[in-house]
Amino acid sequence: MYEQFGSVVQGPAVEFRLFFPDQAVDPQQYKNGGLPRIKKIQVVGDFQRHLGSANWDVATAPRLAAEPHPQGLLFRYRIPELPEGFYQFKYFVTFENQTTRWCTDPCTRYAATENENAGFVIGGGRQSVREIAHRLPLKDLVIYELMIDDFTSGYRQGRAPLDAIWDKLDYLQELGINAIEFTPWTAWRGGEFSWGYDPFLFFSVENYYVESPAEPLDRLVRLQRLIDELHRRGLHVIMDGVFNHVSAGLNPDTGFPYHWLYQNPDESPYTGGFTKGGSFEDLAYSNGCTQQFVLDVCKYWLDTFKLDGIRFDYTTGFYQPGDNSQGVARLIADLRNHLVSQGRHNVSLIIEHLTDDSYAAIQDTNQIDADGCWYDRFLLDVPRYAASGNVTPSLIRVLDTNRRLAAGKSPVIYIENHDHSTVVNRMGGREQWWRAQPALIALLTAPGAVLLHNGQEFGEDYALPETGRERVARRPLRWECADDESGGRLRMLCRQLIRLRHECPALRSPNFYPRSYGEKETHFNEQGFGIDEDKDVVIYHRWGSDASGALERFIIVLNFSAFEQLVTVPFSINGLWEERLSGTKVFVRDFRVENCRVYPHWGCVFHRKE
Asked: Which of 69, 152, 174, 462 could form a disulfide bond with 74, CB atoms 3.0-4.6 angstroms apart?
């Protein structure tokens, strides 16, 4: 429904459509909230000179006419013809108490940098987006988390950031990833730089990412062209969507419009407390109009841009345990029904469900019926073991990432993401980059969809404050590090492991042993698997069917210590195995190999096909 509102362009014509729910017309629209109490709405902008008046002149600005809508009230005004151009506008609202307020359009497709105006384009380029040819399930993805500004700022030289991404597409394919998760591209409020986790216009791409003085009309089309090219190359596209909260601020000119379009913003049915809250205004999912608004936002991005998934940010903020009738559980159910009705499968609906107990998030994922969840224990623990050189029994539970997830669901595992200091920084800096190697081998041999943060592959090194204003800042990738000795060797290991993961479905299966390893076991079990606290070595078994249906097996040995270790490696079957990191062959007798040498901060990945 909401995707039909905003400034709707049809050829040279534009029609402004602004909707408000009304509980008296449709009781399902809201339980908490009220009416906007609007006396008059005018649309004011730089199109007015084509109507015979001065631009931005309130006195001569057209007035939107009110008409009934099945869920409330719809205001409309149509301009039958305008010359080609990019136009900006705002609504000037007069309320029943005679106060006035400037507000932008809550459903605009374009946000302008100046004064956070809404916008629309007459003319300009058009691009349909093709579906990816073979959309894979979440467990088969190796995802690259791409921060649009940081990724491009070191080389884009004044171009729109989305255009500059094209320069690195060959690089990304060579790395071997098959999916890109873009950090939020929806428009943020105000002139200060943002990562995009403070949205206020949900149907609009942030203007900073798409504006190009050389092509002022081609804005939204830039994202369409990029996604179409990524799909042509077989790369999945995942949107990072922030749907727990909005940025309303103190200034109605630049805040979330559906907050300020109400005479008393506290009576807006779109904002208000829901569950845990956060740093901004919550979206009020207890109201049907809000649930519908967010659903329509998601459908717009999924349908228009043929997205292959959405990562839902901070879902603990809009989840009611045990109640799937509202919030994120209802949103995902409605989206899945919509996608199935279109015959679209393997569109990944992923939740970032950060709780005090990371394992509790797994149970919530099952209850919500998401396709998977971000698995934060991997990030918190595996690099810590690598940095310290010490392992504990809890590492086995961390590596058994699919444990207790329902069938067909997958964790998203990572040792670095946008929210924390880089993994190499946690190792002590690039001078000790090699400490990250066992963590990287663990990442790419454990169950789940793998996520690499941009720059992780070549050891980008920066510390990120956990709190404070300096946390959200530009940190341009230093691309020169990608080819120095440290970066080159890390990148080579990444490519080797990613290629192995794509080649061998067993590494993407949920199968893991030892599953019942005790928290007090400090040495290998009777079969020789688990951890050895004295040597700081971990050994685990992975298996599954290959592409032809034959069984393939992996035995992974990781040495987190700073010393070469000799260990007895158990094998599940006798015969010839290959150690895939070195390419050496090992013939196994009596289901074990004695005195296997494992180098410091390194590992062995033994592989055999039946």
From this structure: 69
